[in-house]
Amino acid sequence: MNTAKINELESVHLEAVKLITDLSSLSSEHLNEHLFNKIFAPSFHIYGATREEITCFEQYEDLVKRQNKLTKDSNDKKLVDSNPVLRSYSPNGEVAVYVDNLKFRINDSKAPKEVEKRVSLVLFKLSEGWRVSHLHLSSIAANFYERENLPKGEWEMKNMALEKMVEAQNIDLINSLEQLNDVKAQLIRQEKLASLGQLTAGIAHEIKNPLNFINNFSELSVEFLLEIEENLNKIETNEVTDEIKSLLEDVKGNLEKIHQHGTRADGIVKSMLLHSRGGNGKMEDTDLNALIREYVNLSFHGMRANKNPINVDIQIETDDNLQPVKINAENFSRVILNLCKNAFDAMREKVQKANAQNYLPQLKVKTRADDKKIILEIEDNGPGVSEEIKEKMMLPFFTTKKGSEGTGLGLSISQDIIKSHGGILELESKEGEFTRFIITLDRTDQKL
After folding, report:
1. Is pLDDT above 50 for 158?
2. 419 and 307 share a domain?
3. Which among 364, 367, 394 has a CA at the least distance from the CA of 380?
4. Which of 12, 44, 162, 364 is the most exposed place for a label (fewest CB within 10 A)?
């Protein structure tokens, strides 16, 4: 870790030790929740020599009040020495463990005495800075006294029991850290999607107006050219009229190209707008099997209504034991439509090949579930994709389709939607044989 990071960590560590060891110097008027929250994580645990556990500022405030009441007429206690026992850091520099031995002097009227305590802290590097998640304060003298006076076997048994407790707490800590990282990653992803949505919506709206002018005026210009050709045909043909007709054909071809690419750009803009809108954000219990049947059917009829329709043998196998799944149905249906459309386009390409006379397009859709996962597979027996192309398939704006047919955003959007559900979208393919998309969702831990 760099010096700045270490200095910030040391500062938070010292403040935390002061807050928990110098309770008698604090009064209710001086308690500052804002300062407290700058030291301790949103979710934290403080353990003392007793079995008491503190998990919020109110409990800490109550402890200070009780401590002040107890020590009002008692002897003065002062921290006189602090020795570091352990400084440990995670490989990524995001977690630190600090252990210190503290020595206090108690000014007893009869005879001053010294008391030793050990303070252990676990600190995490959050976006707002270092924060303490766990703090434990124990009495060293008490532990030594207990060890000296207990039989060896009993002490070892007690030590083993404590080790098991520590191990259990470590497991809880690791689980908490994993959950925190999952939530953090999910929030970052959602924030990125929201920012990307706002950005693409703004850009798309700005581009759409000039694109409409380009497309409309290119169409009008072609119509004007046709009128000019009609008028030229009424004039006696000579070298000049032939030259003009030849030039008009060139201009007409150029305008058609402009319109073709303008239409493709318009399709990309529409996809960007669709991407930016997202769904209503609601995660609701949904009959996934029914949703799949409905949108596979809808996609098929949409393909049949467009140019170059093909016949497809659709096989849907659903797991009847699948319970309602918490998903955003509007967004998830978009994924089904995208994957089915890609499958139909791929199979159409194979049908149009000269050597595919005996080829029967087939789409297989399956759902299955176990105790932990829900799996959806959409497979076509189209031309498949090569390993080189497979690596690029999920990239935004990458497409294998010709002309204005593809925008290259369908799979990218689908992947973002599945990720927003805490799931995984995978691609399996064998060139010349099949392409299979596999969606895996967590059954017990659905995320927004």
Report:
1. yes
2. yes
3. 364
4. 162
Q: Two tokens at 220?
A: 């009008």
Look up the domain containing 357 and give its range: 279-448
pLDDT for residue 142 is more than 50: no
Mean pLDDT, the chain, integer = 79
| DSSP three-state, residue 156 | helix
Residues 29 and 43 in one domain: yes
Question: Per the domain annotation, does 387 fall within a domain?
Answer: yes
Question: Of all residues in the chain, what percent are helix, strand and coil, respectively (each to 5)?
Answer: 50, 25, 25
423 and 335 within one domain = yes
Pairing type for strands 129-139 and 434-442 reads unpaired
Residues 51, 57, 63, 67, CA torsion sign: positive
Q: How far apart are alpha carbons 154 and 167 in whole angstroms?
A: 20
Token digits for 163? Answer: 């080790």
**Residue 128 structure tokens:** 């707002």
Q: Which residue type does 257 have?
A: K
24 versus 302: the higher-pLDDT residue is 302
Name the 3-class secondary structure at 176.
helix
Based on the fold, state whether residues 208 and 90 are members of the same structural domain. Answer: no
- Which of 46-50, 77-81, 144-148 bottoms out in mean pLDDT, i.e. has the lowest? 144-148
Helix, strand or coil, per DSSP, at residue 349: helix
User: Considering the chain, what percentage of its residues have pLDDT values greater than 70?
Assistant: 78
Please state, in angstroms and rounded to a whole number, the distance separating the CA atoms of residues 293 and 257.
Answer: 39
Residues 359 and 333 in one domain: yes
The reply to whether 201 falls in a domain is yes
Q: Within 10 A of 313 (CB to CB), how many other CB atoms are there?
A: 10
Tell me how many domains the chain contains: 3
